[in-house]
Amino acid sequence: MSAHNRGTELDLSWISKIQVNQPAVLRRAEQIQARRTVKKEWQAAWLLKAVTFIDLTTLSGDDTPSNIQRLCYKAKYPIREDLLKALNMHDKDITTAAVCVYPARVCDAVKALKAAGCSIPVASVATGFPAGQTHLKTRLEEIRLAVEDGATEIDVVINRSLVLTGQWEGSDFIKTSTGKETVNATFPVAIVMLRAIRDFFWKTGNKVGFKPAGGIRSAKDSLAWLSLVKEELGDEWLKPELFRIGASTLLSDIERQVSNLYLWSKLTGVFEKGIEKPN
Amino acid sequence: GGGAGVWTPRSLSCSTSPGSTVVALVPPASPTPLLLAQLAGELGSFPGILNVISGPASLGPVLASQPAIQKVAFCGALEEGRVLRRSLAGKCVELGLALGMESLLLLTDTADVDSAVEGVVDAAWSDRGPGGLRLLIQESVWDEVMRRLQERMGRLRSGRGLDGAVDMGTRGAAACDLAQRFVHEAQSQGAQVFQAGDVPPERPFYPPTLVFNLPPASPCAQAEVPWPVVVASPFRTAKEALAVANGTPRGGSASVWSERLGQALELGYGLRMGTVWINAHGLRDPSVPTGGCKESGCSWHGGPDGLYEYLRPSGTPTQVSCLSKNMNYDTFGLTVPSTLPAGPEIGPSPAPPYGLFVGGRFQAPGARSSRPIQDSSGNLHGYVAEGGAKDIRGAVEAAHQAAPGWAGQSPGARAGLLWALAAALERRKSTLASRLERQGVELKAAEAEVELSARRLRAWGARAQAQGHTLQVSGLRGPVLRLREPLGVLAVVCPDEWPLLAFVSLLAPALACGNTVVMVPSAACPLLALEVCQDIATLFPAGLANVVTGDQDHLTRCLALHQDVQALWYFGSAQVLFVLFCHIQHLTLPTGSSFSGNSPALLEFLLLRGETP
């Protein structure tokens, strides 16, 4: 995880001067999705890189230790071994960035990861996820307990009533939404958030991370997200310390797509020598 | 009918749909039109609808002067447009010009800067924009914009056009050289140049370029900016922005970036450009017409206006070429032929000579002389002023002073004035009819002419009410506002026939649309027009309508060469028309057909602009 955001003095005048031109942002979003398509062996490389950004998530009411264990195993071995071997990527330590679970399941996740011999962090949602409408006392206690159990990252739900009345908090990462809303991570919103991150970096030198979550299901989507971050922020932000994708079913679609690419390559004879490690 | 032109593939489709056949001349560097022609040829049933010749621009005048060509549409550089214009003089060929490819981007301090930077990329550093960009940035956000621009330039990639990951390709060695020359010029005049991006170092590739700190007085600041250069200049207030933006001879397209609606619209209305985008750049839709003003041309592409460029009202007579080898164009209308003094006056008492009607009142001409007007029996009917170049200048100046006020009037107010004039004419029917009688018109016909004149005024008054801006909904995200704006000062040279009706029929539409006029009435009998002026003097604001009498050829020449007349309607001999074409080298307005002696009801107009020869 990146160094903590040391924060700055709250300067509301900076916020009030911000202008966002919605139609232009929508056009830019369409443009990025349509024009920057990555193909062939480069696509396979980008997909494997996308895997390393995933916060493998399970947030359902029926989570039990057994499905947590399966999740953690998947986090350690996200892509089939034989496929990785065929692509010559089996020794490159490709795992997801983290696992993300409810506070009550943090213990199980830590135990499962330890058993699998995996050192990736456990992230916990907390503070009255997903609505955030619980007492401050219980929310703070939730965080404390999750950290005690072994979580090293916390996805905090901000108190929207504070936001709507103009009382702000600071953070190390900003996330598009809880993932439990009807509309979650959309490109226009993301563009505005990424530009804000860039502005903050230019003004203060602090790098804040970005995490889109919710609704990212296909391999194609994940490529578009990588493209977006690369276009707006540059390669510096394409690291697990500054970029995460909150997703659950995405991983299986990426695996399917990588497998397709590999089969195609076998037919056409491309990249038999494998691909270089994505950096 | 037949057509010809130098076109982009987009405009090719506009011209073939209404039923014309097309011969297109395209530069050798672009193969797309040839592909299009090949596809058209495969349609089979109508060979020869679309023909494409690949060659240099110098072939343009050759192509345009072929017989059976009825319309030429030209897209390209200003000088070539001028050469084409001159070569088409007197040939009854309609000419549409779309000149220059530069556009403008006006960035205020209330804009979404990141989106505006993307707009700059779209305009100048992509394959979507046709030419270079003049970028005007409000001083308070200059540093921020520069920083974001330069950072964004660093992420641009240039390469072969078909590679999906590149932002811009190349436009050929000629374009590369042009850009190089411009940048060196600018540097030698003191500008700073910033270039960035991932660009192949070989020759036809030129990197995205930002030129700034160019002194406003340097020649480069007035020259057209080539692709892929962006010239950035600061401004302090909206007023200054408009002055800088409108300060070049070009008037193609521009965009205004501001999140404050009022400011955006104010700037949009104030820009003298054919197309203005608000908070976007380069949006195009086939149903929305695009065109330019001033030196950027005079034709429209797309939409109904674009379609009408290739159509003519049914029943229009075919035109006859008006080439004349006997005319000396340099001396045409240069001096006023001397007139013999008139014979003794016959009639009750000598009427005092009419003056010129300029600035709302009758005044004596600069030359202090008059010319006699004879009636149908050869007797002296009256004296009118002998106007000259000085009087024309005075009249045009008076018209310009009245123009902003008149253009700002509501259509209702304009209609009211025209109706008031109509009523005044009817009140004076007997005087006007008796004047017409003296010119040999039968009483009944004379009265009918007066009535018809009043009706015409009323009809145009009603049209003043009906015209205006229109809102169009197109495929683009957001409405399109189409503004009809007055041209400014119109000069009108009336035909000899129908001295009253023609005068009124030409005055009314010009005024109804918000223009002010300088009119040269019928040479045979200007007295009718001067009678109407007596009513105009009491009803209209000063300078709205100005009437100058004198030698028609001389006055026509003065008007044609005047720098500040926005349009000239000429009804007279075809040969004179040819002369006008030859004189006028700088042409930015559409040419309609030329004709002589036709009834004013036809009202096709000829729009020209003069320039120093």
UniProtKB/TrEMBL annotation, chain A:
<dbReference type="GO" id="GO:0046386">
    <property type="term" value="P:deoxyribose phosphate catabolic process"/>
</dbReference>
<dbReference type="InterPro" id="IPR002915">
    <property type="entry name" value="DeoC/FbaB/LacD_aldolase"/>
</dbReference>
<comment type="similarity">
    <text>Belongs to the DeoC/FbaB aldolase family. DeoC type 2 subfamily.</text>
</comment>
<dbReference type="InterPro" id="IPR013785">
    <property type="entry name" value="Aldolase_TIM"/>
</dbReference>
<dbReference type="InterPro" id="IPR011343">
    <property type="entry name" value="DeoC"/>
</dbReference>
<dbReference type="GO" id="GO:0005737">
    <property type="term" value="C:cytoplasm"/>
</dbReference>
<comment type="pathway">
    <text>Carbohydrate degradation; 2-deoxy-D-ribose 1-phosphate degradation; D-glyceraldehyde 3-phosphate and acetaldehyde from 2-deoxy-alpha-D-ribose 1-phosphate: step 2/2.</text>
</comment>
<keyword id="KW-0456">Lyase</keyword>
<dbReference type="GO" id="GO:0004139">
    <property type="term" value="F:deoxyribose-phosphate aldolase activity"/>
</dbReference>
<dbReference type="GO" id="GO:0009264">
    <property type="term" value="P:deoxyribonucleotide catabolic process"/>
</dbReference>
<protein>
    <recommendedName>
        <fullName>deoxyribose-phosphate aldolase</fullName>
        <ecNumber>4.1.2.4</ecNumber>
    </recommendedName>
</protein>
<keyword id="KW-0704">Schiff base</keyword>
<dbReference type="GO" id="GO:0016052">
    <property type="term" value="P:carbohydrate catabolic process"/>
</dbReference>
UniProtKB/TrEMBL annotation, chain B:
<dbReference type="InterPro" id="IPR016163">
    <property type="entry name" value="Ald_DH_C"/>
</dbReference>
<dbReference type="InterPro" id="IPR016162">
    <property type="entry name" value="Ald_DH_N"/>
</dbReference>
<dbReference type="InterPro" id="IPR015590">
    <property type="entry name" value="Aldehyde_DH_dom"/>
</dbReference>
<feature type="domain" description="Aldehyde dehydrogenase">
    <location>
        <begin position="29"/>
        <end position="312"/>
    </location>
</feature>
<dbReference type="InterPro" id="IPR016161">
    <property type="entry name" value="Ald_DH/histidinol_DH"/>
</dbReference>
<feature type="domain" description="Aldehyde dehydrogenase">
    <location>
        <begin position="374"/>
        <end position="576"/>
    </location>
</feature>
<protein>
    <submittedName>
        <fullName>Aldehyde dehydrogenase family 16 member A1-like</fullName>
    </submittedName>
</protein>
<dbReference type="GO" id="GO:0016620">
    <property type="term" value="F:oxidoreductase activity, acting on the aldehyde or oxo group of donors, NAD or NADP as acceptor"/>
</dbReference>
<dbReference type="Pfam" id="PF00171">
    <property type="entry name" value="Aldedh"/>
</dbReference>
